[in-house]
Design goal:
It is a single chain. This protein is of the alpha/beta class. It has 2 domains: about 70-210, Chitobiase/beta-hexosaminidase domain 2-like (Chitobiase, domain 2, 2-Layer Sandwich); about 215-265, no CATH class. Helices cover about 25% and strands about 20% of the residues. The chain is built from 6 helices and 10 strands; from the N terminus they run αααββαββββαβββαβ. Strands 1, 2, 3, 4, 5, 6, 7 and 8 form an 8-stranded mixed beta sheet that branches. The protein has a two-stranded parallel sheet with strand order 9-10. The radius of gyration is 25 Å and the shape is elongated. The protein starts with a helix and ends in a 16-residue tail after the last strand.
Length: about 260
């Protein structure tokens, strides 16, 4: 038995040494440079085919992820920060903070303040909806059936319906506060701009609910350092894509105590 264990240990040591002195299958395939940094240019040189594109072509007022049911209208509305209002009689701190957040986010270009037409190649750009801009959108009324819930949980009600009409008004209806948050995110996706200053809003009817109750992302910051700024960017992307669970491995120690002062939705 001891000789068998010694043999296994010897084989393991030999494999470890060989892996250090010989390139891995990944390195041989992609010809990893000496500095260890594999760039897009390196991949294009070693992999024939279509050229890689780093940017994603913008859509114009199309929600993402695509709702379960969506019917877009033929008319677009104009929108301005001064005239956009949210109306609700629902008393909930979560909703109050969400409305204040989206009033700022909606009129902030996702392209970091640059013209959306600058992104993507000219041949592959999507075309803006061909429709005349008429009425100015003024008010989104938010209706929630159930009392305010303070903490999220598995299986929470995230269903909602969203209507944006050509008369310049709309209604967001949900069973619980969590559905209203998803609906506000979808509502923000329906805004688009072609020149930063002139904002437009798509009209339409949307019914949406999650396919999976648990939609999470894991960040392992115990083994791979991530700055606070990058973690916040991941949280913003989770919000935009309607994820509902943030799992962070902050330490590999079996018992690691930390205080959570807020709960992220």
């Amino acid at each position: 038995m001891k000789s068998l264990a010694s043999l296994i240990l010897c084989i393991f040591c030999i494999q470890s040494v060989l892996s250090e002195i010989s390139p891995s299958r990944y390195d041989r395939k992609y010809k990893k440079p000496a500095d260890g940094v594999l760039t897009v240019e390196d991949l294009e040189k070693t992999n024939p085919g279509p050229k890689l594109v780093a940017a994603v072509n913008p859509s114009y007022g199309i929600p993402w992820p695509l709702p379960q049911q969506i019917s877009l209208g033929s008319a677009n509305l104009s929108a301005t920060p001064d005239q956009l209002k949210f109306s609700t009689t629902y008393e909930c701190d979560i909703l109050t903070q969400a409305i204040a957040r989206y009033q700022k986010l909606i009129f902030t270009n996702n392209a970091s303040g640059e013209d959306m037409n600058n992104y993507g190649s000219s041949k592959s750009k999507s075309s803006p909806p061909s429709s005349s801009v008429g009425q100015v959108f003024t008010t989104l009324t938010i209706v929630i059936d159930q009392p305010c819930e303070k903490l999220p949980y598995l299986g929470m009600n995230e269903n909602y319906t969203l209507s944006v009409w050509a008369n310049g008004t709309g209604v967001l209806h949900s069973g619980a506060i969590w559905g209203a948050l998803r609906g506000l995110e979808t509502f923000s996706h329906m805004f688009f701009t072609l020149d930063i200053k002139n904002w437009q809003l798509r009209t339409g009817e949307i019914t949406d609910y999650p396919r999976f109750a648990h939609r999470g992302i894991l960040l392992d910051t115990s083994r791979h350092f991530l700055s606070v700024g990058n973690i916040k960017k991941n949280l913003d992307l989770m919000m935009q894509n309607k994820f509902n669970v943030f799992h962070r491995t902050s330490s590999t120690i079996n018992r690691f105590r930390t205080q959570a002062r807020c709960f992220l939705i």
